[in-house]
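Before our next group meeting I need something from you. Please put the record directly below this note.
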Amino acid sequence: MNEVLSQSEIDNLISAIAKGQGELPLQDQEELQFAAKKYNFRKPNKFTKDQLRTLYMINDNLSRILSNYLSGYLRSRVNINIASVEQSTYEEFLLSMISPILITIFQMPPLTGSAVMEFGSNFTMPIIDLLFGGTGKKNNQIRDLTEIELRVLRIIIQKILENMSLAWLDVFQFETVISSMETNPQFSQIISPNETVAIITFTTEVSENQSNIYLCFPWETLKEVIPNLTAQNWFATQKYQEDSTKDIVNNLEKVSLNLSACCGQTDLTIKEILQLEEGDVIILDSIVGDDMELLVEGSPHYKIQPGVIGNKLAAMIAGKI
């Protein structure tokens, strides 16, 4: 039970407080001192650890999407992996840029504000070489990109941004629109230098050329989706997608498909087709004893051997095509 103060003790306490002599108990002073934390007003941390962790998971998914897409588009091995996610100021992000680089400023409607994606020359130049019929080897000569090269890269980068919006689809749906493409960091002042940004770093490898991609999201641009950047929300969406995928697979397994056997093919002109009569023989491209093709909805999928079961024609699967 708490002790009850006498009237004289209460009067002395009030008098001490009025004269500014009152002090907190030692235990309360220690608790107050322990609760105080240092705060850097020049570099405020607006993103929480949970939000940065969710950004990491989103962009880890993006790295896999881009690796598959660019490998198929360029017909060459492309590896992209996420390296880190951290928050900093926009000024520090600009100061870290090392020329030659390609800076893409883009918008994400319906979100307001802009974001930045930075590409190193060891990423852009091998892509240019591959698209122009080369082997993807980077010329060590340092030079600016030509207008034609910039236009070609704009198409590639637009596709990269479209894939980025797909990676974000579980958190927020937005479009991507390129505002400008620059090679000089001085023309990339989209926000105040002291504004907090999230910087995602990717390591890239294109035809054995290693480089980096940097993705910069200002806090002001993402503030509308900040409440969705939680690991709980991310995993809940992933679980819903897994359940939806299972339902789709179960429904697809019940779909009936048309199967047909093809014993051979040949080409005829329209004139020859019009002249066909009963009893004419058409020579096919297959040889006696060759496997036939089993078509699934008109597309060849299996090699088969024809036969008979009872009074019905049949086909035995001999292998995949």
Notes: DSSP finds nine helices and ten strands in the chain.
